[in-house]
Amino acid sequence: MSDVAVPAERRWTHVGVWIVRGLLALAFLGAGGIKLYGAPMMVDEFHHIGLGQWFRYLTGSLEVIGAILLLLPRKAGFGALLLICIMIGAVITHLFVIGGSPIPAMVLLALNALVAYSERGEIASLARAL
User: Fold this and answer.
1) Where are the transmembrane segments (predicted)?
2) Distance between CA 130 and CA 19 in Å, rounded?
3) What does the alpha-carbon distance between residue 118 and residue 13 come to, in Å, rounded to a whole number?
4) Count of CB atoms situated within 10 Å of the CB of 54
5) Contact 28, 64 (CB under 8 A)
6) pTM for this entry
7) pLDDT tens figures, 38-56
8) What single string gives the DSSP state of each residue in 75-98?
């Protein structure tokens, strides 16, 4: 649906999803970049999680990859699915390990679910091909 003509009645929905995808991409490029850069706050947070700094690099890399996929029309659904998995982990981590509010992660999870739902046709067609 992303790279073909959109019927007039769905045009605003299509534009809205593109705006959400762009904002999510910016958010995850920033969050992943901070993790990869090694901001002291992120280093401390991942130290508190207890899995080591390799996990910070993995999480940051996956966030950046997911953000890039969100911007690619035929891959946006898979970027959203990847970021949904990361945000589920973030919510669980906030609830049971590091504390703090899980609300930002839950909002990002919901927005990525919206993108994945809007790209469900692409996800299903590629899943059938596999």
Assistant:
1) 12-34, 54-72, 79-97
2) 30
3) 9
4) 9
5) yes
6) 0.86
7) 999 999 999 999 999 999 9
8) THHHHHHHHHHHHHHHHHHIIIII
